[in-house]
Amino acid sequence: PKNGRVKALSKACLDRTYWFCLLVLQTIIFLRFESLEKIFFYFIILFFCGIMSFEDIKSLKIRNFWFYLSYLCIFTFHLIFNLDSIFSYLISIVLMSCCLLPCFLLKNKMGKGDFLFGIFQGMCLLPKQVFLCVFFEIIAVLIFVLILVLAKKFDKTKRIPFVPFMALGLLLSYLPFTIN
Known about the structure:
This protein is mainly alpha-helical and 180 residues long. The protein has 7 helices and no strands. The model has no long low-confidence stretch (mean pLDDT 82).
C-alpha cells in the first residue's frame, strides 16, 4: 500500500509540475509576443499540446475528438488570419508526415496518435520550422532515454509516450520565429 501511495503522489507531483511549467511559459510568452493574433495562436497550440500530452502520458492513447477539434481550430484560425500563407502550412503538413511516416510504418515504434499529432504540428508550423521541430523532438527523447538508462529504469518492453516530446518540439520550434 505504501509503495502505491508513493507512486500516486509522484505522478500527481509530475502532473502539477507539468501544468505549472506550462503556466510559466504562457506568462513569459504573453509578455514577448508582438500581436494579439500570435498570442491567441500560441495559446491554441499550448492548449492542445497540454491536453494531448496529458492524455498520452496517462493512457498512451489520445481520443480522436482532440485531433479533430485541434485541426478545426487551427484551420479556422488560418482561414481568418493567414489565408495568404495557407499553402505553406499544407507543405508543412506534407513535410511533417514524410518525417514521421517511416517511424509510423515500423510496428510498435510510433502509434496513430503520434502520427496524427504530427499532422497537427504541420498545421502549426511553416516549412522552415518543421525540421527544427523534428530535431528538438529527437534531442528531447534522447535526453529522456539517457536519463532512464543512467537511472537503470529503462525497459525496452514499455512504450514511451512520444506526444509530450513532440509538443515540446512544436513549442520550441514555434517560438524563435514569432518572438521579437
